[in-house]
Amino acid sequence: FELIPCDAFITEATFGLPVFRHPPLRQEVEKLLRSCALFPDRAHLVGAYSLGKAQRVMALLRQAGWDRPIYIHGAMEKITRYYQESGIDLGDVRKIAAADRAKLGGEIIICPPSATQDLWARKFPDPVVAFASGWMRIRARARQGGVQLPLVISDHADWDELCEKI
Q1: CA-based R_g, the chain, Å
Q2: Separation between Cα atoms, residue 74 and residue 98, nearest integer Å
């Protein structure tokens, strides 16, 4: 078979529809911080994929001025430690001890998305469930997943970015 030269642009386009226009990241992080201020006694569980997205959310929180500890689910401990050992400053990140969950009202806890609906999550004080994903642009997906605070934070190009690149 023979390759025929052509001018083509091939890309993965998870969010390649006009409905997917991602807001500024700072705006999404500020939604989380406003919720923490509004509900200071409730734990804020942020579902985020363990490799990359969780650490990105941590870095965004630090850039926005969150200087308190960020608590993480045990499934994120090794990869987060790897980021820190590689020179990525994520601030004070603490793995959650089972006995401490009831004491974490007002704190931000980052966990795998599936953990927000798990028995593990029920031990936190009146948790606010958030999820950091480009899919949170679709409200029905947030509602279906029991997400109270959708955070449109994506690692993929959105519609406008794809059109600009093309």
Answers
A1: 18
A2: 10
